[in-house]
Design brief:
RNA polymerase sigma factor SigJ; elongated; ECF_Sigma-70_Domain; RNA_pol_sigma70_r2; 13 helices
Length: about 280
């Protein structure tokens, strides 16, 4: 097996790790490409290729996270991860709960080291000794980081399951009600404490704060309908971060909408990405 074959066999795992670390498809691909360049330079010196590649990719991601901190702090409006889009006809590549928007937002509350420890141990099932070697930390320190991270992320894990079919029906019904301006139907589909987050990155119109609660969301939808601001030229149903979702083409460009189903057949989260920097793969 050539060095290229060895690397390509690990590329999907490395990309999954990098996306969870960085919340960006483009950044994840860049980090994995950097790992490839280092892999080529390392040559035959690597005794355990898989472990070496995970270690290298993790460290590259931590460096990127630290370097991007000032940019993230200056981000205008709410931040959402770059959408991970899958066609509905394809079986999900990832477990929905491990790439869900709620889960990735929970990871954002962690430090780079906490995030790396949690993902490597709890998601990618590496033992603490391997994680400690990857991060250059002692095993007790890694265990402590994992405990702290777990406490932050616990609440983001879904406490119930909703079938893909039921979730897709709920999302479709919501969009029909929105198109018809049926605010009573919209309200009935939302959980009382539902959240709506719109990410324009300061480059396209979006709410500058998360909308919390059914009434807040319905008021925004009423305003959009009244202004005719939601004119859609075309749309396509897809799976976004494991949720039912839509790619919508509006007059001012593409956007994605992901619907997070919850208990009792209601939506608990709606996540809209309008920032063109995060939608590059929809136009290229």
């Amino acid at each position: 097996m050539t060095d290229t074959d060895v690397f390509e066999a690990q590329r999907p795992r490395l990309t999954r790790l990098a996306y969870r670390m960085l919340g960006s498809v483009a950044e994840a691909q860049d980090a994995v490409q950097d790992a490839w360049l280092r892999w080529r330079r390392a040559g035959d010196e690597v005794a355990e290729p898989a472990a070496w590649l995970v270690r290298t990719t993790t460290r590259l991601c931590i460096d990127r996270m630290r370097a991007a901190k000032s940019q993230r702090d200056a981000y205008r409006g709410p931040w959402l991860p770059e959408p991970l889009i899958e066609d509905l006809a394809v079986d999900p590549v990832e477990r929905a709960e491990d790439v869900s928007v709620a889960f990735l937002l929970a990871l954002e509350r962690l430090s780079p080291l906490e995030r790396a420890v949690f993902l490597l141990h709890d998601v990618f099932e590496e033992d603490y000794a391997e994680v400690a070697e990857t991060l250059g930390k002692s095993e007790p320190a890694v265990r402590q980081l994992a405990t702290r991270a777990r406490a932050h992320v616990k609440e983001a894990r879904p406490r119930f399951t909703v079938s893909q079919e039921d979730a897709a029906k709920l999302a479709a019904a919501f969009m029909v009600a929105a198109a018809q301006g049926d605010m009573s139907a919209l309200s009935a589909m939302l959980a009382q404490d539902a959240v709506m987050v719109t990410d324009g990155g300061g480059k396209r119109k979006a709410a500058l704060r998360p909308l919390i609660g059914r009434e807040d969301i319905v008021r925004l939808m009423e305003g959009l309908a009244w202004r005719g601001a939601d004119q859609t030229l075309s749309f396509r149903s897809v799976r976004i971060n494991g949720y039912p979702g839509l790619i919508m083409i509006n007059a001012d460009g593409p956007m994605t909408v992901a619907f997070q189903p919850g208990e009792g057949g209601r939506l608990v989260g709606i996540y809209m990405v309008r920032n063109p920097d995060k939608l590059w793969h929809l136009t290229h």
